[in-house]
Amino acid sequence: MPAPSSTLNLGVLAHVDAGKTSLTERLLFDHGAIPELGSVDAGSTRTDSGELERGITIRSAVAAFATGDTQVNVVDTPGHPDFIAEVERALSVLDGAVLVLSAVEGVQAQTRVLMRSLRRLRLPTLLFINKIDRVGARTEGLLADIRRHLAPGIVPLSTVRDPGTDRALAVALPLGEAAAEALAEHDDALLARLVDGTPPPARELAAPLAEQTAAGLVHPVFFGSALTGEGVAQLTEGIRTLLRPPAPDPHAPARGTVFAVERAGGGRKVAYLRLFAGTVRERERLTFHRPDGGRHRGRVTGLDVVTAAGAGRGAGHVGEAGNAGGALTAGGIARLSGLPGVRVGDVLGERSPSGAGQRVPHVPHFARPGLETVVRPQQPGREAALHAALTTLADDDPLIRTRPAGGGATSVLLYGAVQREVIGDRLRREFGVAAAFEPITPVLVERPLGTGESVWEFARHGPNDFWATVGLRVEPAPPGSGIAFTRDVEWGALPRAFHRAIEEAARRALQQGLYGWEVVDCAVTVTRIGYDAPMSTAADFRDVTPIVLHRALRAAHVRVHEPCQRVELEVPPATSGAVTGLLAALGADIGASFARGGSWVLMADLPVRVVQELTAALPGLTHGEGALWSHPAPTRPVRGAPPRRERFDGNPLNLDEYLRFLADRSLTAARGVGGG
């Protein structure tokens, strides 16, 4: 079989249980990429590798097959709402997508969320209506639902005979008047012909259908069954003819995106790189850029190109790096070894505008997680191993964030409860550490309300707890600006090590404010300094700075804020009252509401801590027809008494006790009595 001349990177997306993993298996099996079909229930599918993934895809995996002269790299994406960030990352490397719907359940909430993301990116998308042989399967009614809830511009290319029975057949539909009317919405010449009563023949509709599909303007629809294979051949033909592979320039500077990172034997990092332009070869040195402006370099020691011919160890698993001396060309995907600093979201080369036929890599930015859990090892003495394992996971994936929590525990920031289960599963399988998770809580922050100052001055004559003079001023900074540290003193009036000790101690102290939460959007200014040689040491400045800083925060007053989400709810009009009542009960700030396409839309801001409750209650309140979209909103002050967080040493936080604790700890350490 000749080598494919082009590569198409295809995403398969769906609501949970719609059958996208089964469809991926069928595509691979029908084209000889795997010797037998796997079972979702048995956990033997090629693209779902972990125990938790039986029946629910939670991480992207890559497999490949060839159809005609095209190699199709299939990126099997998550379907669970907690992993919408994984979906967004996968979309950034795709050339097209297949959105799978169930002929029985129809348009579901997550289906609408996924379709909105696909349409926002103008990603060419085919619709595959699965499970036509299941009892209750619908056809025409479901097409009407798709037009109303997903996209008005659909072009059915098949229909079903005997739906809902084991005799169900997918029958190809020729391009006719209905297809011409859908295409005429974006083609004035075609519209004029329809108005004149001279519709074009089917053969003249093929080209505009392909063009408008590639532009994301219309969406061809296919019916079938992934389990039996019925209708899958027609879908494959649509993938081959309607989702056009890009024509990247292999001679341009290398440009690509890392969309997944895995660990191979011995903890070796293996990065999945989608190359948009240029060529990457083994032993080549590469420079990667991060969304935050950072960058790192590394040499490729192994390059394993995803190919249609290699069954290997299965997609989603990294075997020994192959293709020695080979190359990854533009449009393809490869697993790269030898890049210990690589992370998900890293960009190879500058993100310059793409040339003709090339798509600009879209690297989504994700807001900081709004939920947190504390993790401890189930076995005493495994604290260091647990922390190292969590640090490794966070180093691979910027969507996992960790920080020390005291007492051998580690805090993990999350997007949802299912993510916690996945992390626990990976800790056990990949690192051999059994972890216990505390209940999930929201991640609060503190912001100064005004300006506050404090000074600690040592006595020139007499005993001193700290041989250091430090004065600090704190004041609010613009939202999202982080921490600004400046000096209103002469740099040369203090040894450089003492300046560094003040700044490091101040930034560390801001990790726990007056109520125990991290202080954000704060400007800290050093207003006074002093020392006495040879008595003063850097430790004096490190120990006294937190005390001065927290006293300045108390003078400024702080307010505790909680993370919020801005949600858009689309519900049946008859259920809007019940949904509005729930939003009010959850403490939401309800905004605009209006009618759209036969549904009622509600806009609201509400705390992250109750979004899961809203998501869980929505299907019951709306008879399964409600859909929810959300994105980060500005934080808002906590209503009622601000909750206090424990200190890192596990004791309840009281400011005066805390300041005495800091001072006593420093004095104890200075006298050599014990650690602190």
Oligomer classification:
single chain
Describe the global form.
globular
| Number of E-state strands | 33
Distance separating the two termini: 69 Å
Cα-atom radius of gyration: 29 Å
Write the layout of secondary structure elements.
Elements lengths: L5 E9 L5 H11 L30 E7 L2 E7 L7 H8 L4 E7 L6 H12 L4 E6 L9 H10 L4 E3 L1 E4 L7 E4 L4 H8 L3 H8 L6 H13 L4 E5 L8 H11 L12 E9 L5 E9 L1 E3 L3 E5 L5 E5 L2 E4 L21 E3 L3 E5 L9 E2 L22 E7 L5 H14 L4 E6 L2 E6 L2 H15 L3 E3 L3 E2 L2 E4 L3 E5 L12 E8 L6 E5 L8 H14 L8 E2 L2 E9 L7 H19 L1 E14 L4 H10 L3 E8 L2 E9 L3 H11 L5 E11 L17 H16 L6
Parallel strand pairs: 1-3, 1-4, 4-5, 5-9, 6-9, 24-28, 27-29
Antiparallel strand pairs: 2-3, 7-8, 10-11, 10-18, 11-17, 12-16, 13-14, 13-18, 15-17, 19-21, 19-22, 19-23, 20-21, 24-30, 25-26, 26-29, 30-32, 30-33, 31-32
Helix pairs in contact: 5-6, 11-12, 12-15
Would you write up a description of this structure?
This protein has 676 residues and is an alpha+beta fold. Helices cover 27% and strands 29% of the residues. It contains 15 helices and 33 strands. The strands form 7 sheets. Strands 2-3-1-4-5-9-6 form a 7-stranded mixed β-sheet, sandwiched between helices. It is globular. The C terminus is likely disordered.
